[in-house]
Amino acid sequence: MTLKRLICGFFIPLFFASSVFASQNFDERLAQLDKLLQTDLPQAEMVFTELAPSVSQFTRPQLATYHTLSSIKHLYLSELEQAHHSLDIALSFEPSEELLTRIYLYKVTIYLMQRNYEAAFSMLEMNLSRIESYQDNRLKVASYVRLLNILLDLNAYDEMRDTANLVLDINQGQDTKNECYAKLYLAVATLKLTQYPLANDLFKDSQIYCAANEQPLIANMSIKGQAQSYFELGQLVQARPMFETALAGYETFRFQLEINEVKAYLSKIYFYQKDYDRAAEYAQELSKLNDDKVNQFAKKQANEVLAMLASKDGDYAKAYQYQLIAHTLDLQYLDDKTNKQNAYQMARFNNAETKRENKSLQQERMLMMQQKDLMLKEKSSSMMFSTLLFGVCIGLVLLLLTAWLQRNQFRRQAQRDGLTGIYNRQTGLDLAEDELVQVLTNKSHFSVMILDLDFFKSINDRFGHATGDWTIKKVAHVIQDIIRPTDIFCRMGGEEFVLYLPNTELSAALILAESIRSEIDNINTKYSGHNFSITISIGLSTLEEGDLSLDPLLSRADIALYESKRQGRNKALIYQPSFA
User: Fold this and answer.
1) Residues forming a β-bridge with 447
2) Coiled coil where (predicted)?
3) Among 3.40.50.150, 3.30.70.270, 1.10.760.10, 3.90.550.10, what is the CATH number of 423-579?
4) Higher-confidence residue: 371 or 41?
5) Which of 149, 160, 223, 239 is the most exposed place for a label (fewest CB within 10 A)?
6) pLDDT number for residue 570
């Protein structure tokens, strides 16, 4: 019996000691894995393989961490469903408060990539309420850094810049990894706000800091950011080697989304620098990507390059087909961007409205308590109570009126193009379809013209996007001054517009088109800060027997527009069957 006790007394502590040692070792390996996911994805995958046989020995917190890190790997590889599944498993192991924040914000990122805005905003609002209650600045910084990625995907660049500055103020360099992210996102927000020289300086700062603090992936993103700044400034000689360096870095991580985007930029640069074989190689590769929305940008750029290559070779039919694909992808991107912005603004509005409603409920509760007190008082106080009730009612009416006006304002914004203020594509199409029904009922005329600025890309490349925006707004203003109030004028996207002309014969439409073309040709560009010419090509079509929707009119007008471009641009042409 004594011997048995001696054996147990020796081996039981040894067993617990070995278990504690194993648990600590797993914590160290998971911490190493977290770091490798930011620096060396192939090495991280090797660690995943090594850890797989030991997963059954993990504690619950370790399992939560392991499955969260697994989701990050799937995100890098664009495996969204697997990433979401890994996060759900991580949640089942009751993660720590810090890890729970990471999981929620990764879920928001996945929802946004899947365009499930309702779920994304619901989870984002829930997590933001948690962040505000944190006393630990370290957790706040980590949460706000992940929020930055979400704001980027929502195109909320002003909020993104403010949040990045907030992180830098709170962090003060204490957490070098989050300092790197904040510096990068500040530079990205500045780039998206078209402040290109300043963005370039901020990207250089983040590259130096992050490289010095062993964050190679973020440093590589900063190199890509500098390349984008040079590209937007038209400095392709400086942009090309930086994009090539960034591409090599992303290939190390197998970060496919970024690899595709960098190849899209390089394909255009190679074309402009007359390296046509390499331009075609990347463009053809990207054009074969699947139709996931995350590939829209790369596929659009690729088809534009393929269109330019076909045009260079004199194959205008093929160039037109590639341009049609690029145009369709651009419209899809713009629709998605508009949907995101509208959803974001509506979510912010609903959040503010909920807070106002809560405030109103609190006011009503206070009012009920005051009413009970007043009922116990002398009748002489009834006048004061009535006055108070009236004031509260007036306040509630004003509050509801403000909410109603704000909702109407958002509805109007959703119908308008953000740059020019004219109708956006979908709103214009809806209004025109309604007019077409009336025209068909009355057996009247209906004409359509599609207008496209000539060589607009060269204006952007030579003078910058600010001048390009000035050009688009100026052209829209000139056209608005010419057309009738009953005409429906909208922006299709980029430099392309459409004008729907209810109750208008083709001859009258052609006269109007020539007037528009002439006025635009005479625009004085000195007020933009540069001297250049603006011309526009126009394709026209009219309602024919058998047309029951706008689709055939738009298709014929588009063919006429393409023929106008082919004949040298700065022309207004009516659709002819021989054009097709």
Assistant:
1) 501, 542
2) 344-371
3) 3.30.70.270
4) 41
5) 149
6) 95
